[in-house]
């Protein structure tokens, strides 16, 4: 069950983040607030179902960071440093794309300046990020089956002669 929800939450993360990276109309402060609220509801549901150890919440980390990126101030060098230290699950390309797509929804907000985006790129230039922008929503986590050792010892096993396993020797 835990593995199923980890996979499901990864797919939610990938589809939502890919939509955020492709649609200019949803890259805004209010979308960041809505995303963060929805993610907190998912995390609360996981806690209520006792699935917090499944790794499902960790798969949402890039989306959480993208939501926080939309909500942070984007003006000063200190803001750039804060963004770089916060957005560890997002690639440089994803951060820059979100900042380029950021659209103010009211007159109190301002567009992200080109100088600020270049400052972010300068801070993140030493990262070795993969070159892909979008997440692979078809990625499948391996299924893990827990090993439960048997209480029966090998000394107590009797092999019937009809199996023709005479070549096996007890050590």
Multimeric status of the protein: single chain
Return residue spans where pLDDT drops below 50 for at least 5 consecutive residues: none
Tally the structural domains: 1
Largest sheet: none
What is the CA-CA span between the terminal residues?
Answer: 40 Å
Order of helices and strands: HHHHHHH
- SS strand fraction: under 5%
The DSSP helix count reads 7
Shape: elongated
Q: Could you tell me the number of beta strands?
A: 0
Percent helix: 40-55%
Radius of gyration: 24 Å
| Average residue-wise pLDDT | 93
Secondary-structure-derived class: mainly alpha
Overall description:
- The protein is an all-alpha fold and 171 residues long.
- The chain has one domain (1-124).
- It is built from seven helices and no strands.
- The radius of gyration is 24 Å and the shape is elongated.
């Amino acid at each position: 069950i835990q593995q199923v929800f980890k996979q499901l939450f990864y797919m939610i993360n990938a589809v939502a983040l890919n939509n955020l990276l492709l649609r200019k109309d949803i890259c805004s402060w209010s979308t960041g607030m809505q995303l963060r609220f929805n993610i907190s509801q998912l995390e609360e549901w996981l806690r209520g179902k006792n699935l917090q150890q499944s790794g499902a919440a960790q798969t949402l980390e890039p989306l959480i960071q993208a939501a926080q990126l939309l909500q942070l101030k984007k003006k000063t060098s200190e803001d750039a440093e804060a963004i770089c230290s916060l957005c560890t699950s997002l690639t440089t390309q994803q951060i820059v794309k979100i900042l380029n797509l950021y659209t103010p929804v009211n007159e109190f907000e301002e567009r992200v300046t080109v100088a600020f985006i270049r400052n972010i790129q300068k801070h993140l230039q030493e990262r070795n990020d993969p070159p892909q922008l979008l997440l692979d929503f078809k990625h499948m986590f391996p299924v893990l089956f827990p090993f439960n050792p048997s209480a029966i010892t090998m000394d107590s096993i009797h092999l019937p002669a009809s199996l023709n396993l005479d070549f096996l020797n007890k050590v």
